[in-house]
What does this fold into?
Amino acid sequence: MSNIVVVEPQDALRAWLCDKIKYVPTPNMTCIGLYSLDDKELKWVVGYDGWSENSVEVHLAGSGYLNREFLYKGFAYPFIHGGVKVLVGRVSSANKKALRLNKHLGYREMCRIPNAAEDGDLVIMAMQREECRWLGLKGHKFKAVEKPHAQAGG
It folds into this structure.
């Protein structure tokens, strides 16, 4: 199984993710994908939207194995490159698989808004930078460049 982390073309990554999760992004949404060289297809895409000085909303869709490089870059991008302190996610209470994955990744449930999702409650999840165990993966480095929220005018 040979997978690589991709960041281009952004429009294709964004379209793939938003189609899977039925999300309408802002023009400033940035994505990272995990592409299978064996299957010649995207396996996972993580998107970052709604940047503020201290937080960003994270959206994730895919299937199969999440490799260490994707996990590291997926968390290093907002925390190191973006300089945010908190990642925020929204999940339907009916999406048990996504809730389990988010908890496994280290997100904590912050609150539930009854009936706010199409098929249940809206669960708001968050992860503080100091709680992120993925930033400590050995052998990975992330080169910081221009802050994403600076591009977005945030």
